[in-house]
Amino acid sequence: MMVGSARRMLPMIRFGFFGFALCCVGLNPSVASAKRSPMTLDDIARLKNVSAPSVSPDGGSIAFLQINPRNPFKGKDGPVRSFLMIKRGNAEPRLYVGGDMSVKSYRWAPDANAIYFVGEKTGDTQNALYVVPLDGGTHTKVCALDQKRNIDAFDVHPDGKRLVVVSAPAKNAAVIKAQKRGFDAVVYEESKRASQMAIVRPQPGRSCKMRPIRRRDHVRDALISPRGDRVLVKVSPTPHVDDGYMQTRMRILSLAGAERTRIENLGKLGTARWSPDGRLVAYIGVDDYNDPSAGRLKIADARSGEIRDLLPNLLGQVEDFVWMDDQHIGAVIHFGVESEVWSVDAKSGEHTTLVPQGGQVVRALAAAKGRIALTADAPRHPTELFQLTDGKVERLTVSNPWLADRILSRQEAIEFEARDGLKIQGVLIYPTRYRKGRRYPLLIFVHGGPEAHRSNGWLTRYSAPIQVAANRGYVSFVPNYRGSTGRGVEFSKLGQHAYTSPEFDDIVDGKNHLVKTGLVNRRKVGITGGSYGGYATAWSATALTEHYAAGVMFVGISNQISKFGTTDIPQEMYAVHARAWPWDDWQWMLERSPIYHAPKSKTPLLIMHGDSDPRVHPSQSLEMYRFLKVAGKAPVRLVWYPGEGHGNRRAAARYDYSVRFMRWMDHYLKGKGGPPPPYQIDYRARLKDD
After folding, report:
1. CATH number of the domain residue 594 falls in
2. Helix 503-516 × helix 532-542 angle, to 10°
3. What is the pTM of this model?
4. Which of 358, 389, 565, 615 could form a disulfide with 17 if both were Cys (CB 3.0 to 4.6 A apart)?
5. CA geometry: angle at 312 spanning 309 and 318, to 5°?
6. What is the pLDDT confidence band of residue 89, given thresholds at 50, 70 and 90?
7. How sure is the predictor about 203, in pLDDT bands with cuts at 50, 70 and 90?
């Protein structure tokens, strides 16, 4: 056995264990089947994937969610819908809940004969709790809250007769009446009401009566212990997002609400789960309060609350875990751009590798009675369901069979040396018709966070149409610059109080590396990203303008001072990003704001933003636009998406983003450039009646 401590730098390309799934990646079109065609933006808009695997308590079935996008040109616009799928035994996966119902979350009944789920039908103004029998038949509503209250979270008691439900309090009838008469003023932050927890007995056909367990804090989640005598709750001082990020703590209560144990976890908090015997709670936590991302595997004693790090000094990121038995935890761990699945001893921390690196990136894990399910994606396909049996991985779903008829370009992990000697990793995608010795235009896709990372799996999405770009003759580069996760806590902290440099210099160094290899035309480089990646784009288009011929900024930061005053996460910004308040050094904040460097810009910049974004306020994009417009040295355009927040959710808005992105890059990296392309996009001919 190996002990999970420090990890060496991992080799960049290793195929074999999952190699079967990569049989067609990077095929030269000259030898590919004549029936295969390039990927299109319409293809991206219809991509399905799976998530949230769960093995039934008896180990006989696997449930999961299939994520289904809407057709942007047909039917009602809206976000993706999640359908409940179940694979029973060796049978093919079957749709259990779909159509006009979208599933938010679900739990197996203790006897494994049914599944409870929170769902919302198209047109409904609130969700409700339903149950669907495993043997088939329609789903039945078992719990709906009165006065249009949503169920935020729930769990099923081991006796199968009770539920724990988390929901915000109902509005007072007098308040509702006043609001209808126009007295509907909203007091910012103070008006939001804290959610409460209650034990309820569902009665089909009737509303569930909430008799909440009174607490002064906000309940975010609740999990009943395996014996049914206690509840593990996640609580924060308020419902605010910032408190959710930085102040969520765990408490163990009796069913009546008496506090039994306080687990004083610090900083960000991820998934938490009871051990099968109820003696321990495992969770994904942080190394310290200033750790940017929950990625450490922690164990807490359910009686004393004592916490220990199960894998100290891990140079990776724990993405998911599941208790396999009272003694062992299955853990999904990302190392750089690759992943592994470990079985970890809950006492010693010693581990064995269940799924080694190579070919696919594992995202989530589920297990019961010796049956192990996982979800994973690869350069050839989005996330699908797999099963691990006797050391072998079997693919169980093919959500997008038409992908077999698409030409997908060669993709590989790379590593280069930054100017200060630090090794930086990333993923490179070649043009579909790549020819050695030819230089190509480059698109750089910068992830947000920066406490995040991109893996060598499926990378194409509406905001990063990478395979479409490959067909149009672009090289794409996805860097994991310093401050990214997946390489340990120390690496993820390298961007703290170090805005822009050297973190965004890493991206320039990656670009220069690709130019030196002879692959990239240095005069034809575009950059894009969302959120912190949008910040990188704005900075690159201003302070580093000499390196970039085009940029597309999405929900990005332009002014670090006003960002503090308009975001809903100022505490998180201070604790894990800036490590300073604006008044600690106004000039430092200002000089690391792209607007400060606007007069330098020669890079055409397309700015896109949802007008209801609470995280990066839309005014950030407006400031960037106005400064560049007044400076007048480079083309700039600002596009608002009505009703969208920190990223687009609706099918039409996503599709429009993809179209505008590719048109901007084509215009400035492959076309004549000059003034921006026409702003109008006429979709009328494609729109269909319901």
Report:
1. 3.40.50.1820
2. 70
3. 0.93
4. 358
5. 80
6. confident
7. confident
